[in-house]
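Slide 14.
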Amino acid sequence: AEIARKIAAETSLVSGSIEVLKAEQAIESSPKGKASRGALASLARISVKVLMAFRIRVVVQRNEEGQPAVAKMVCAVGPSDEPLHGGNTVPQTLSLTLQQWGFSYDQSKEVRRLIEQDALAAFKAIATFESGLSAEERGGRFAATDCIGLDVFLTYREGVVTPVVIEMNDHDCMHHASLLEDVHPGQRGECMRHVTRNMLHKSQRFLQKG
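Slide 15: predicted structure.
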Protein backbone atom coordinates (compact mmCIF):
# COMPACT_ATOMS: atom_id res chain seq x y z
CA ALA A 1 0.00 0.00 0.00
CA GLU A 2 2.93 2.34 0.72
CA ILE A 3 4.14 2.01 -2.88
CA ALA A 4 0.61 2.64 -4.10
CA ARG A 5 0.43 5.83 -2.01
CA LYS A 6 3.67 7.12 -3.56
CA ILE A 7 2.40 6.37 -7.06
CA ALA A 8 -0.85 8.13 -6.25
CA ALA A 9 0.98 11.23 -5.04
CA GLU A 10 3.23 11.37 -8.12
CA THR A 11 0.35 10.70 -10.48
CA SER A 12 -1.83 13.39 -8.91
CA LEU A 13 0.90 15.95 -9.52
CA VAL A 14 1.14 14.93 -13.17
CA SER A 15 -2.56 14.86 -14.00
CA GLY A 16 -4.43 16.89 -11.38
CA SER A 17 -7.15 14.32 -11.94
CA ILE A 18 -10.09 14.09 -9.55
CA GLU A 19 -10.08 10.33 -10.24
CA VAL A 20 -6.51 10.08 -9.01
CA LEU A 21 -7.27 12.04 -5.86
CA LYS A 22 -10.26 9.82 -5.09
CA ALA A 23 -8.15 6.70 -5.54
CA GLU A 24 -5.45 8.17 -3.31
CA GLN A 25 -7.99 9.05 -0.62
CA ALA A 26 -9.41 5.55 -0.72
CA ILE A 27 -5.96 4.12 -0.16
CA GLU A 28 -5.08 6.58 2.58
CA SER A 29 -8.29 5.83 4.47
CA SER A 30 -7.59 2.09 4.43
CA PRO A 31 -5.81 0.38 7.34
CA LYS A 32 -2.06 0.18 6.73
CA GLY A 33 -1.30 -2.65 4.31
CA LYS A 34 -4.98 -3.29 3.60
CA ALA A 35 -5.85 -0.98 0.73
CA SER A 36 -8.82 -2.42 -1.13
CA ARG A 37 -8.25 -4.23 -4.41
CA GLY A 38 -10.75 -1.89 -6.04
CA ALA A 39 -8.82 1.22 -5.01
CA LEU A 40 -5.51 -0.24 -6.18
CA ALA A 41 -7.01 -1.40 -9.48
CA SER A 42 -8.55 2.04 -10.02
CA LEU A 43 -5.22 3.70 -9.34
CA ALA A 44 -3.44 1.33 -11.70
CA ARG A 45 -5.87 2.14 -14.52
CA ILE A 46 -5.52 5.88 -13.96
CA SER A 47 -1.72 5.69 -13.76
CA VAL A 48 -1.66 3.82 -17.08
CA LYS A 49 -3.82 6.49 -18.75
CA VAL A 50 -1.68 9.33 -17.43
CA LEU A 51 1.81 7.92 -17.93
CA MET A 52 1.28 5.79 -21.04
CA ALA A 53 0.07 6.33 -24.58
CA PHE A 54 -0.85 4.04 -27.44
CA ARG A 55 -1.18 3.92 -31.18
CA ILE A 56 -3.29 1.46 -33.15
CA ARG A 57 -1.88 -0.60 -36.01
CA VAL A 58 -4.53 -1.76 -38.46
CA VAL A 59 -3.59 -4.52 -40.91
CA VAL A 60 -5.71 -4.45 -44.08
CA GLN A 61 -5.40 -7.15 -46.73
CA ARG A 62 -6.97 -8.11 -50.02
CA ASN A 63 -9.01 -11.27 -49.48
CA GLU A 64 -9.50 -14.16 -51.91
CA GLU A 65 -12.36 -12.28 -53.56
CA GLY A 66 -10.11 -9.30 -54.23
CA GLN A 67 -11.83 -7.10 -51.65
CA PRO A 68 -10.16 -5.28 -48.74
CA ALA A 69 -10.65 -6.79 -45.29
CA VAL A 70 -9.29 -5.88 -41.87
CA ALA A 71 -7.14 -8.76 -40.65
CA LYS A 72 -6.00 -7.36 -37.31
CA MET A 73 -6.07 -4.35 -35.00
CA VAL A 74 -3.35 -4.22 -32.38
CA CYS A 75 -2.25 -1.47 -30.00
CA ALA A 76 1.34 -0.50 -29.33
CA VAL A 77 1.48 0.79 -25.74
CA GLY A 78 4.42 2.86 -24.55
CA PRO A 79 5.55 5.99 -22.66
CA SER A 80 3.54 9.14 -23.29
CA ASP A 81 6.55 11.47 -23.11
CA GLU A 82 8.31 10.22 -26.25
CA PRO A 83 7.40 9.14 -29.81
CA LEU A 84 6.02 5.62 -29.97
CA HIS A 85 7.85 3.06 -32.10
CA GLY A 86 8.58 -0.64 -32.20
CA GLY A 87 11.48 -0.34 -29.80
CA ASN A 88 9.63 1.27 -26.86
CA THR A 89 6.16 -0.30 -27.03
CA VAL A 90 4.50 -3.61 -26.26
CA PRO A 91 1.58 -5.10 -28.23
CA GLN A 92 -1.85 -5.31 -26.68
CA THR A 93 -5.36 -5.99 -27.95
CA LEU A 94 -7.51 -3.01 -28.88
CA SER A 95 -10.38 -4.08 -26.62
CA LEU A 96 -8.16 -4.36 -23.54
CA THR A 97 -6.42 -1.06 -24.25
CA LEU A 98 -9.66 0.87 -24.65
CA GLN A 99 -10.98 -0.73 -21.48
CA GLN A 100 -7.89 0.42 -19.57
CA TRP A 101 -8.39 3.95 -20.90
CA GLY A 102 -11.95 3.99 -19.57
CA PHE A 103 -13.98 3.31 -22.73
CA SER A 104 -17.29 1.53 -22.29
CA TYR A 105 -18.20 -1.49 -24.42
CA ASP A 106 -20.42 0.62 -26.71
CA GLN A 107 -17.74 3.32 -27.05
CA SER A 108 -15.12 0.71 -27.91
CA LYS A 109 -17.42 -0.83 -30.49
CA GLU A 110 -17.94 2.55 -32.15
CA VAL A 111 -14.22 3.33 -32.15
CA ARG A 112 -13.51 -0.01 -33.80
CA ARG A 113 -16.19 0.67 -36.42
CA LEU A 114 -14.74 4.08 -37.28
CA ILE A 115 -11.20 2.73 -37.52
CA GLU A 116 -12.27 -0.13 -39.78
CA GLN A 117 -14.26 2.28 -41.96
CA ASP A 118 -11.24 4.55 -42.49
CA ALA A 119 -8.84 1.65 -43.01
CA LEU A 120 -10.98 0.06 -45.71
CA ALA A 121 -11.44 3.42 -47.41
CA ALA A 122 -7.66 3.90 -47.50
CA PHE A 123 -7.11 0.50 -49.10
CA LYS A 124 -9.86 1.12 -51.66
CA ALA A 125 -8.22 4.43 -52.59
CA ILE A 126 -4.95 2.61 -53.27
CA ALA A 127 -6.71 -0.08 -55.31
CA THR A 128 -8.53 2.57 -57.36
CA PHE A 129 -5.25 4.37 -58.07
CA GLU A 130 -3.51 1.14 -59.09
CA SER A 131 -6.35 0.18 -61.43
CA GLY A 132 -5.46 3.20 -63.56
CA LEU A 133 -1.81 2.17 -63.91
CA SER A 134 -0.36 0.10 -66.70
CA ALA A 135 0.99 -3.39 -65.99
CA GLU A 136 4.51 -2.01 -66.29
CA GLU A 137 3.78 0.79 -63.83
CA ARG A 138 2.27 -1.67 -61.35
CA GLY A 139 5.30 -3.94 -61.60
CA GLY A 140 3.69 -6.78 -63.53
CA ARG A 141 0.46 -7.99 -65.09
CA PHE A 142 -0.97 -9.32 -61.83
CA ALA A 143 0.92 -7.05 -59.47
CA ALA A 144 -1.18 -5.24 -56.85
CA THR A 145 -1.02 -4.09 -53.26
CA ASP A 146 -2.33 -6.95 -51.14
CA CYS A 147 -1.40 -5.81 -47.61
CA ILE A 148 -0.96 -2.48 -45.84
CA GLY A 149 -0.59 -1.30 -42.27
CA LEU A 150 -2.05 1.93 -40.96
CA ASP A 151 -1.01 3.65 -37.74
CA VAL A 152 -3.90 5.39 -36.03
CA PHE A 153 -4.16 7.77 -33.09
CA LEU A 154 -7.37 8.73 -31.32
CA THR A 155 -8.22 12.38 -30.77
CA TYR A 156 -11.17 14.52 -29.69
CA ARG A 157 -13.04 16.54 -32.29
CA GLU A 158 -15.98 18.53 -31.00
CA GLY A 159 -16.28 16.20 -28.04
CA VAL A 160 -16.23 13.03 -30.13
CA VAL A 161 -13.41 10.45 -30.14
CA THR A 162 -12.11 10.36 -33.70
CA PRO A 163 -9.45 8.11 -35.29
CA VAL A 164 -6.70 9.87 -37.27
CA VAL A 165 -4.42 7.96 -39.65
CA ILE A 166 -0.86 9.20 -39.17
CA GLU A 167 1.07 6.70 -41.28
CA MET A 168 0.58 3.98 -43.86
CA ASN A 169 3.08 1.46 -45.19
CA ASP A 170 3.45 -2.07 -46.51
CA HIS A 171 6.76 -3.10 -44.93
CA ASP A 172 6.88 -4.53 -41.37
CA CYS A 173 3.14 -3.81 -41.08
CA MET A 174 2.46 -7.11 -39.30
CA HIS A 175 5.32 -6.93 -36.78
CA HIS A 176 3.28 -6.00 -33.69
CA ALA A 177 0.39 -8.20 -34.77
CA SER A 178 2.75 -11.19 -34.99
CA LEU A 179 4.19 -10.42 -31.55
CA LEU A 180 0.70 -10.27 -30.07
CA GLU A 181 -0.20 -13.60 -31.64
CA ASP A 182 2.91 -15.16 -30.08
CA VAL A 183 1.52 -14.13 -26.70
CA HIS A 184 -1.96 -15.47 -27.57
CA PRO A 185 -1.41 -18.80 -29.39
CA GLY A 186 -5.11 -19.13 -30.10
CA GLN A 187 -4.86 -16.09 -32.40
CA ARG A 188 -1.88 -17.28 -34.42
CA GLY A 189 -2.32 -16.84 -38.15
CA GLU A 190 -5.05 -14.19 -37.92
CA CYS A 191 -2.85 -11.38 -39.22
CA MET A 192 -1.96 -13.47 -42.30
CA ARG A 193 -5.24 -15.17 -43.08
CA HIS A 194 -6.59 -12.95 -45.85
CA VAL A 195 -3.33 -12.43 -47.71
CA THR A 196 -2.52 -16.15 -47.48
CA ARG A 197 -5.91 -17.16 -48.88
CA ASN A 198 -5.48 -14.57 -51.61
CA MET A 199 -2.09 -15.99 -52.60
CA LEU A 200 -3.47 -19.53 -52.73
CA HIS A 201 -6.45 -18.36 -54.77
CA LYS A 202 -4.18 -16.57 -57.24
CA SER A 203 -2.02 -19.67 -57.56
CA GLN A 204 -5.03 -21.84 -58.35
CA ARG A 205 -6.27 -19.39 -60.98
CA PHE A 206 -2.82 -19.26 -62.54
CA LEU A 207 -2.64 -23.07 -62.75
CA GLN A 208 -6.14 -23.32 -64.22
CA LYS A 209 -5.19 -20.87 -66.98
CA GLY A 210 -2.30 -23.16 -67.92
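Speaker note: Residues 24 and 197 are 52 Å apart (CA to CA).
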